[in-house]
């Protein structure tokens, strides 16, 4: 019988309890041979005589690639892969069917006793305020550190959600550095930064002559990450045409170069990130449901900086020490004034941690005294007015207008944030003569983030005056 998915979606406001990871025990019994026991911590199990299967069976009545067991949102699905002698559950030959947690499967003349033994990990907030290059003393971050401490040593796929600038790549690197793969490569691949006609080649590689301009064979990102980790940034930007090819890699552990005749086995752990809501994309038909459930074994959501204000002072100290080594400036700078710290702690930080780092780097490079003062901060952080209920026509920006208390708290807060983002974006672009790249640099966010905000609020740069 199908069962409810065990995938645990973990967000900062949850009471984190238990994380369930896939794990199965398979005992193979072949006539004339001793039984073999396989313990597999993957959501796809390949069965056959070929050496690249997860369960390799020495039985001449079994096909090279005979069957596979896949864990999806409904349970464990066994699928025959076009074998010569068929796959049986009990005495019934099947093409594909969901099986119970304890089942007996027959392939050729061999019997497989399948037992799902999913691993249950208790998750507690970490006692530490650091994980890899990630820093935070807030409960939100210590919960995330607790998750990462448990997940990093495994091979499960992880999806990292959160706004631009929250540190998703740092999470991916921290997972890799704390895994058993840390002596091998981590390959960073931005799905939204490669032209659509080239992305398949960039991901999976190509053979010489595969297309015009392919003068040499080339490895793709998956091959370069073999025995290591691949970080697929902005996975929500991957086209529907390529999604089934990525799904097949996850299911089989094989990639096929563009123009190649045969697939190639790779051993890669996949970590993804997105600023989009993948579940909403699935509902709208923009993201494959089967790929979504294959990727989101663990889904960690990084909070924006405005929701972890107690971490600001700790981050400021970290970036200040980092600026000493990388930015330059006066060697006499001793620290940051209390007034500056107050401004930094009260700022909304639409660009999140990236914006904060850029603000500290800029202040350090401009500082010509022994303390960083407000005058050294980026101009948009100087003289920020406190929120008030001014309604005299002189200043109607969201920073100076009162929130609408007639609305529910959550709705009023989201509306205030939307107004802030739109107002901030317009003023930022005007200040930078409508130059998107220059505006992004000053705000401490990337160019694509400015473009996304323009699209979100249906703004055209040409119409801003």
Strand and helix layout:
Elements: E1 8-10, E2 18-21, E3 24-30, E4 36-40, E5 44-48, E6 55-56, E7 67-72, E8 75-80, E9 87-89, E10 92-94, E11 96-99, E12 102-107, E13 110-116, E14 119-122, E15 130-131, E16 134-135, H1 139-151, E17 158-161, H2 168-177, E18 186-190, H3 199-204, H4 221-224, E19 229-233, H5 243-252, E20 254-255, E21 264-265, E22 269-274, H6 278-283, H7 289-295, E23 298-301, H8 312-326, E24 335-336, H9 338-346, H10 352-366, E25 371-372, H11 409-431, H12 436-443, H13 447-456
Parallel strand pairs: 1-23, 5-6, 17-22, 17-23, 18-19, 19-22, 24-25
Antiparallel strand pairs: 2-14, 3-4, 3-13, 5-7, 7-8, 8-11, 9-10, 9-12, 12-13, 15-16, 20-21
Helix pairs in contact: 5-7, 8-10, 12-13
Describe this structure in words.
The chain has 465 residues and is α/β, with parallel strands linked by helices. The protein has 13 helices and 25 strands. The strands form 7 sheets. The chain has a 6-stranded parallel beta sheet with strand order 1-23-17-22-19-18. The protein has a 6-stranded antiparallel beta sheet with strand order 4-3-13-12-9-10, with no helix packed on it. A 5-stranded mixed beta sheet has the order 6-5-7-8-11. A hairpin with a 2-residue loop joins β9 and β10 (92-94).
């Amino acid at each position: 019988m199908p069962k409810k998915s065990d995938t645990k979606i973990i967000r900062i406001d949850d009471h984190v309890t238990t994380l369930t990871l896939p794990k199965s025990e398979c005992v193979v019994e072949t006539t004339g041979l001793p039984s073999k026991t396989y313990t597999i911590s993957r959501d796809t199990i390949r069965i056959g005589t070929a050496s690249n299967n997860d369960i390799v069976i020495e039985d001449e009545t079994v096909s090279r690639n005979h069957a596979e067991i896949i864990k999806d949102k409904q349970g464990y699905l066994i699928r025959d892969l076009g074998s010569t002698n068929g796959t049986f559950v009990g005495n019934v030959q099947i093409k594909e069917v969901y099986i119970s947690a304890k089942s007996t499967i027959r392939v050729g003349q061999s019997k497989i006793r399948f037992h799902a033994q999913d691993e249950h990990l208790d998750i507690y907030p970490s006692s530490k305020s650091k994980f890899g290059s990630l820093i935070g003393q807030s409960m939100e971050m210590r919960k995330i550190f607790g998750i990462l401490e448990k997940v990093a040593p495994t091979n499960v796929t992880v999806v990292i959600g959160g706004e631009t600038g929250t540190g998703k790549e740092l999470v991916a690197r921290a997972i890799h550095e704390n895994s058993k793969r840390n002596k091998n490569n981590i390959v960073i691949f931005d799905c939204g930064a490669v032209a659509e006609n080239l992305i398949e080649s960039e991901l999976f590689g190509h053979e010489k002559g595969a297309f015009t301009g392919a003068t040499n064979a080339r490895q793709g990102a998956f091959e370069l990450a073999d025995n290591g980790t691949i970080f697929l940034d902005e996975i929500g930007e991957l086209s529907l045409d390529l999604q089934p090819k990525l799904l097949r890699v996850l299911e089989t552990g094989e990639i096929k170069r563009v123009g190649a005749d045969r697939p190639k086995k790779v051993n890669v752990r996949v970590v993804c990130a997105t600023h989009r809501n993948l579940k909403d994309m699935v509902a709208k038909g923009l993201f494959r449901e089967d790929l979504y459930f294959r990727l989101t074994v663990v889904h960690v959501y990084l909070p924006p900086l405005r929701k972890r204000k107690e971490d600001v002072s700790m981050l400021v100290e970290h970036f200040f020490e980092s600026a000493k080594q990388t930015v330059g400036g006066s060697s006499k700078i001793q620290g940051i004034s209390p007034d500056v710290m107050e401004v930094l702690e009260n700022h909304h930080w639409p660009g999140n941690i990236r914006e904060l780092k850029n603000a500290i780097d800029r202040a350090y490079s401009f500082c010509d005294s022994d303390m960083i003062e407000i005058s050294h901060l980026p101009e948009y952080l100087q003289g920020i007015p406190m929120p008030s209920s001014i309604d005299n026509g002189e200043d109607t920006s969201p920073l100076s207008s009162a929130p609408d208390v007639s609305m529910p708290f959550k709705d009023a807060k989201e509306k205030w944030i939307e107004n802030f983002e739109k107002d901030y974006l317009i003023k930022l672009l005007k200040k930078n003569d409508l130059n998107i790249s220059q505006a992004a640099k000053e705000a401490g966010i990337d160019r694509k983030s400015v473009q996304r905000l323009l699209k979100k609020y249906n703004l055209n740069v040409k119409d801003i005056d």
